[in-house]
Description:
Low-confidence stretches: none
Structural class: alpha/beta
Radius of gyration: 16 Å
Distance between the termini: 16 Å
Oligomer: single chain
CATH class of one domain: Alpha Beta
Strand order of the largest sheet: 2-1-3-4-5
Helix content: 40-55%
CATH topology of one domain: Rossmann fold
Mean pLDDT: 94
Strand content: 15-25%
Order of helices and strands: EHEHHEHEHEH
Amino acid sequence: MAHAKIWKIYLSGEIHSNWRDELKEGAKARDLPVTFYAPVTDHDSSDDCGVHILGKEDNKFWHDNKGANMNAIRTRTLMEASDIVVVRFGEKYKQWNAAFDAGYAAALGKALITMHGDDHQHALKEVDAAALAVTETPGQVVDILDYVINGTLK
Length: 154
């Protein structure tokens, strides 16, 4: 099926599971016209990019600040270029960066989809209130993408 539009999807959030791969495989299986963007998902590279490129910092605050600023170049640029932002909140860690990305996406007026389990429902109530869809699985996100792109239910 030929599509006129290639939808750009930014995948934010936890990096300790393969949810991004599941989502990509699901979209590919349905031949959805999508391009996926994501932050750097290698934890050590993301944490240490600033000091690796710009020089060592003795103070951990400035170490983290350099990395966060460098990562923000990628994150902001790709989120701003995206049509839809999907933010996954995992079970293992508190992803403050994911919550920030959700707020940033909402401030940009991006279509926001959140993904998390019931255990985060209360903590994320304000984030979920800004989302156009609240999901629990990559498969649900693929179903949403299929519906909004093709306008039909499977």
